[in-house]
Design brief:
- The protein is built from nine helices and eight strands.
- The protein is of the alpha/beta class.
- The strands form two sheets. It has a five-stranded parallel sheet with strand order 2-3-1-4-8, with helices on both faces.
- The chain starts with a strand and ends with a helix.
- It binds adenosine-5'-diphosphate and zinc ion (ZN).
- Zinc ion (ZN) binds next to loops.
Length: 215
């Protein structure tokens, strides 16, 4: 099963991904998460990427495509994987198409998560992440049991640099200009499924997605 979750920043891709990978027993490949780990570890790639990320801009395509093409060769990807936050530009989608063609892999579904802009803003400003395991929380909609502490691993929660209000606006603009064109790109390939996620619980939305994907 190969899946892509598409949607603006704050749509909940990370949250739904965590639920879906448990249900389908496939790994989540989050390019944002991979980049944040590289930044934390101070690798050369991380140092390059940090400047773009903190400003709310996209990291150059060649860096990202390199990350993904290597990651999907790992043994845990042999039964499929879920891409969260990739592709984000038409160039990335074309590169992915070529990789799939070469490796004889088939993309099963692209889930397009639709959320109203005012809801996005609140979700982004409320978002908190675990320093240790990358778990997602939200002070408004999905609080941890103990404030500031991860439920799963007791790591400290923090607010991402790019979840500050000024940067959020930039990221929403970047999404509209560079990533939203992928909606028609995958619609034309008859592989796109819309999921409206402005309302409803996380479980309800995950159920909707599972019904679309099938077993
Ligand atoms: P969100 O979906 O909430 O915006 P992510 O965690 O997916 O956040 O990504 C955080 C940042 O990492 C992005 O703003 C961007 O700078 C960089 N990034 C992640 N994925 C990509 C990608 N596919 N292409 C370019 N940049 C990316
Ligand atoms: Zn944690």
């Amino acid at each position: 099963m190969i899946l892509i979750l598409l949607g603006p920043p704050g749509a909940g891709k990370g949250t739904y991904s965590q639920r879906l990978i448990e249900a389908y027993k496939i790994p989540q490949i989050s390019t944002g998460e991979i980049l944040r780990t590289s930044v934390k570890n101070g690798t050369e790639m991380g140092t390059k990427a940090k400047g773009y990320m903190d400003k709310g801009l996209l990291v150059p395509d060649e860096i990202i495509v390199g990350i993904v093409s290597e990651r999907i060769k790992d043994a845990d990807c042999k039964n499929g994987f879920l891409l969260d936050g990739f592709p984000r530009t038409v160039e990335q989608a074309n590169a992915l198409g070529l990789i799939f063609e070469k490796s004889k892999l088939k993309l099963d579904s692209v889930i397009n998560i639709i959320v109203k802009e005012d809801v996005l803003f609140k979700r982004l400003t409320g978002r908190r992440m675990c320093k240790v395991c990358g778990g997602n929380y939200n002070i408004y909609t999905l609080p941890s049991k103990v404030e500031g502490v991860c439920d799963k691993c007791e790591g400290a929660l923090y607010q991402r640099e790019d979840d500050k209000p000024e940067t959020i606006e930039r990221r929403l603009k970047v999404y509209a200009e560079q990533t939203a064109p992928l909606i028609n790109y995958y619609k034309d390939k008859n592989i796109l499924h819309d999921v409206v996620a402005s309302e409803g619980s996380i479980e309800e939305i995950v159920e909707k997605i599972k019904t679309i994907i099938g077993k």
